[in-house]
Structures are given as structure tokens and as C-alpha cells.
Amino acid sequence: METVKDVDALSVPEHIPAEGGFVHFFGTRQSPAVLVKTVHVGQVTPVPPDFPSVISVKQVHGKSVLVFDDPLASHATLTQEGDALVTSQPHVLLVVRTADCVPVLFADLQNRVVAAVHAGWRGAVAGIVGETLATLTQRYGTHAEHLRVAIGPSIGPCCFEVDGPVIDPIKAHYPYWAKVISPVSSTHATVDLKEFIVQQLQHQGIALAAISKSAACTQCDASRFFSYRREGRVNGTMLSGIMLKP
Ligand SMILES: [Zn+2]
After folding, report:
1. Is there a contact between 68 and 86 (Cβ–Cβ < 8 Å)?
2. What is the pLDDT of residues 83-140, one digit of tens each?
3. From the CA of 190, how far away is ligand 1's center (Å)?
4. Which among 76, 210, 215, 239 would be 20 to 30 A from 196, CA to CA?
């Protein structure tokens, strides 16, 4: 039986091959330090020598996919808002920020396209994963068998206890909700957001062997991760990113 591979924070899941020209990471509170210190939301930030153009945009918990296939001017302002970033350009690092939400990185090994997605429960329910897959398929001809997906650290089912406003839309729109939601009382349940992403990917034809999933919980592990829920506010965010090399 196939199993989902585990990914530790900052590790490089081997199923997205570095030798194939893919650079990717899941950050922690402290690292990658060079990016944590310099990357700006809403701007193309040059972070030489490794990252000539870093893209980070305002995230809005929606399902908008932003494509960056045209050359980008250094320090250009990015007014677009969205939760999925896609590029086929080498040396463009796509960055998403999370602090409990799920960072998801995509690599099409054949067509050489990458995507970085910020998926909280709102975006996951809205369909940000499916929208990203649709963009890859329609724009680049991505086939499921060439796709690799890495799911990073997020709040785990150990800590993500919620009530109706979160539970109800998942139950209403996703027939496999029982694999994602575990009731704890008549009104409350825990939700496994990372498994929710895995289920969505599988239902879109992505094989389990092509998916890796971090076991880390951002709320449990205060030494490595910021957590909106634990800290009660946005204290900071982890950066996760993916880039093509020429
Ligand atoms: Zn936890």
C-alpha cells in the first residue's frame, strides 16, 4: 500500500528532485534567514546570489491563481492578491507565508512549471488546490503523472478544533469529509487540513506516491514555528518557496 512520505521543516522532499533543477523549502521561524530578513510582500525582491527574483503577494484566503510568466523588474510592485503563485520562469522564487495554514508546493517535472500555494481552511474549502491544478493543466499541459506535490508544516488535527462555520462547508462540498473531520462533541470537531489537501489531490488524479506531507504541527512546536492560534495574533510567518533553476 502506498503511503504519504513525511517531510520535516526545511527538508527538501526527495520526490521533487534537486538535480532536476528544482529548489524548494519549508521555512521555520528563523530560516531561511536571508529571506526572512529581506523579502517584502507585494514586491519583487532580489536576494542574490541564489534568488534573483523573489515573489510574495498579499494573501487573501481565496482561490485566485496568479501566473508570473513574463520577465519581472527588480523591486517592481506587485498589487495582485492571491493564494497560488505559478511560474515557468527560471530563477523566480515563489514564496507563500503561513502560520497554521498549509503551504503546498507543486513541481511539474516534465513541463518545468512550479507553483506555491497558501491553503488555510477557507482557501481549501474555496478550492485553491483544484484551481491551481486547473491552471497547470490548461496553461502548461501538466499531466498528473509528472506532478510532485509537497505539503508543509501547518496546524495539525491535534490542535485544530473547530465548530460549525468550518465543519459545515467541508461537509457540504466534500463527500470524503469523514476522512478529514473527527467529531469531538455534538458541535465541535478536529479537522486535518493537510489530509484535506491530500484528499483533494487524490480526487484530482494525483497518486499518493507523488505527494509528501509534513507531520509537523505549527501550534505544538513553538520552537520551530509561528502559530496564529497559539499566539493569538500574527506574530510572524514562515516562508515556504519553490524555484526553477535553468
Ligand atoms: Zn498540534
Report:
1. yes
2. 999 999 999 999 999 999 999 999 999 999 999 999 999 999 999 999 999 999 999 9
3. 11
4. 239
How does residue 2 score in pLDDT terms, banded at 50, 70 and 90? Answer: very low
Cα of 216 to ligand 1 centre, how many Å?
Answer: 8
Q: Evaluate whether 53 touches 91 at the Cβ level (below 8 Å).
A: yes
Of 8-22, 50-64, 74-88, 224-238, which range is least confident? 8-22
Distance 221 CA to ligand 1 centre (A): 7
Q: How many angstroms is it from 239 CA to the middle of ligand 1?
A: 19
Beta carbons of 75 and 44 less than 8 angstroms apart:
yes
Report the DSSP beta bridge partners of residue 214. Answer: 7
User: What residue type is assigned to position 106 of the chain?
Assistant: F
Measured in Å, residue 48 CA sits from the centre of ligand 1 at: 36
CA distance 150 to 142: 16
The set of residues, in sequence order, having a beta carbon less than 8 Å from that of 102 and lying 6+ positions away, is 118, 119, 120, 124, 151, 152, 154, 193, 194, 197
**pLDDT at position 134, please?**
98
Q: Domain limits of the chain?
A: 5-244
CATH 3.60.140.10 fits 5-244, yes or no: yes
As given in the structure block, the three cell numbers for residue 51 are 534568488
